[in-house]
Amino acid sequence: MSGAEILVWIHILAWAAYFGAQFAVIYMLIPAAARAPDEAHRRDSLITGFRFYNPFTLAALLVIVITGAVRLTDLKAEMKFDYFARIGGPLALKLGLAFVIIFLQTYICLGLAFRIGRQEEIAAHGDGEPFTVEQVDSILARIRAMAWITIVLTAITVLVSLTMVRRATAEVVVYTPPARAALYGWLFPTSGARSARRLVRRERVASLRYKRA
Fold first, then answer.
1. Confidence (pTM)
2. Per-residue pLDDT for 173 more than 50?
3. Are residues 73 and 45 in contact, defined by beta-carbon separation less than 8 angstroms?
4. Containing domain of residue 53, as a range?
5. How far apart, in whole angstroms, are the C-alpha atoms of residue 5 and residue 74?
6. For the segment 179-206, what is each residue's pLDDT rounded down to a tens digit?
7. Both 206 and 152 in a single domain?
8. 187 lies in the same domain as 116
């Protein structure tokens, strides 16, 4: 396995880890905490879970950004002048989606989840009151909503990535005069007119692409 393939697998696994963590917080952490015998145990469960969730998801996004940037650098070196022409549009969309996902995840971790444990520490030192049950429920509702948004955005980002892969690996049709098709049919008569027609069709497609460009 080459270094480029290893990089791609790390990128995919990081996306999968982040995607799975969002479902885990929605369907595992929050429901498990809700089954706690009292409010104190519920908050302890949430704080313990978020202590793992917060750095894990942010680290997964960091790996995604680093491996994606390195892979884009390799693609740029391979595709050279065709880089922006072939994948420029999907790349801009993917970068925009990645920025939104990172922004939302930072808000989930530092703006919402971290506040529950922080406020409990402040209350334990006598410097303030802990969050009420209604406040904690409101924070969890916002975490759940933001997590669903990131799941949808992640799915869209994956689809955009697949579009980039298809464009990056698409065969480039080189324009040649239509007379070459006739010459091909004359030199290789056993192939019949089918091969000539196929080549003529490719020539027409190439000419149309050339005119549009």
1. 0.74
2. no
3. no
4. 3-169
5. 12
6. 544 444 444 454 445 554 554 455 454 4
7. no
8. no
